[in-house]
Amino acid sequence: MVDLIPDRPKKGRGAVSNASGRYEPFTRVAIDDGWNDPDGSVGPDGFGEPPMSPAAPPTEVTWDATRSIITRNSSPDVPFDRSINPYRGCEHGCIYCFARPSHAWLGYSPGLDFETKILAKPEAAALLRKELARKAYKAEPIALGTNTDPYQPVERRLGITRAILEVLKETRHPFTIVTKSNLVLRDLDILAPMARENLVRVMISLTSLDRKLSRVMEPRAPTPERRLEALRTLNAAGVPAGVLTAPMIPAINDAELEALLDAAVRAGARHAGYVLLRLPLEIKELFTEWLETHFPERKAKVLNLVRDTREGGLYQSEFGLRQRGSGVYADLLRTRFKQAERRLGLNRGLAPLDVTRFAAPRDAAKQADKRQLSLL
Question: What fold, for 60-342?
């Protein structure tokens, strides 16, 4: 019988393993050929070298050949019907990310591949302009960052999110952003003027105030301090920015719920939300591996509490339950959030974004020409 090589964590990455996606016809399994000793010792004859920890796999970026950029949904669990994701995969490496299983559709693993094989959409702005120009198009807020983070590290170099925002600014189209990154501050020159017209709202995702825990949960996302500073700067500039405490993981970060909301309010947040941990498809195995690696003494407790919120399983797919769960623990978490919400005055009187200012790209161009002519 051959020995399997145990998966080990890679520095700067969230997933421990890289199992084949669920649509692949074959499964890859690493075995020990006897040349390396997993406990780090050399061979009995004294020759050879101790095994090295596996190097962190580099990030690979390829172009995504998408033909449309606005994704539609009819889910009653989310407050929007359309979204844009400039990237597939996310280098932040959050182990709990509910988008991980989508990488299997591309022939990749929801594990390390999701964090290291990023598909970028360089034509996103041009595609958006084309879709907004359709005669039948009716403006409603577009959500950015619903699947993967629009401000993940590669955005600093590629600027695809920035190009999308420029189209939304030109057409005065309302939108929302969810991000873990303070890179959003780069685009304040677009966000602040649009906020004055009630066209934008930002949510900063904050899961822990503990830097060590945050690094384990989200290895390549900015620190909690940087996210709070982004929240503070956005609100000071007049951009309505709230906090999303998601996910709340039983016995990992759930005790911080009130502290997270308190810190966000001190940074100017006036709206907030939370989501209970979700473990669909391959995330169950990835999350369990992650617990075994980083919190072995808490693994059984965490999983048992998750089952308490999911009617004995690790996931519920029903609308209305996916985000909040059910049972005693889920009810307690909901009560805690509601009490903090009332105490801090959160989520009061938030006006909907203005959809009446939208001007289709062709009309926006004509209006720009008229403005130029009026200056002559």
Answer: pyruvate-formate lyase- activating enzyme (3.80.30)
Please say whether the dihedral angle defined by the alpha carbons of residues 264, 265, 270 and 274, taken in this order, is positive or negative. positive
The helix (run of H) or strand (run of E) holding residue 365 is: helix 361-374
> How far is residue 204's CA from residue 138's CA, in Å, rounded to a whole number?
27
Q: What is the pLDDT of residues 76-116, one digit of tens each?
A: 767 788 999 999 999 999 999 999 999 998 999 999 999 99
Q: Which residues contact 233 (CB under 8 A, 6 or more apart)?
A: 185, 188
What span, in angstroms and rounded, lies between the C-alpha atoms of 302 and 297? 10
* pTM, 2 dp: 0.87
Give 98-106's long-range contacts (Cβ < 8 A, gap of 24+): 98/278, 98/280, 98/283, 99/147, 99/148, 100/15, 100/282, 100/283, 100/286, 101/22, 101/280, 101/281, 101/282, 101/283, 102/147, 103/21, 104/21, 104/22, 104/23, 104/24, 104/281, 104/282, 105/21, 105/23
Closest C-alpha to 269, from 193, 345, 364, 215:
345
Q: CA neighbours within 13 Å on the CB side: how many for 162?
A: 14
Q: CB neighbours of 5 closer than 8 A, spacing ≥ 6?
A: 30, 31, 32, 36, 38
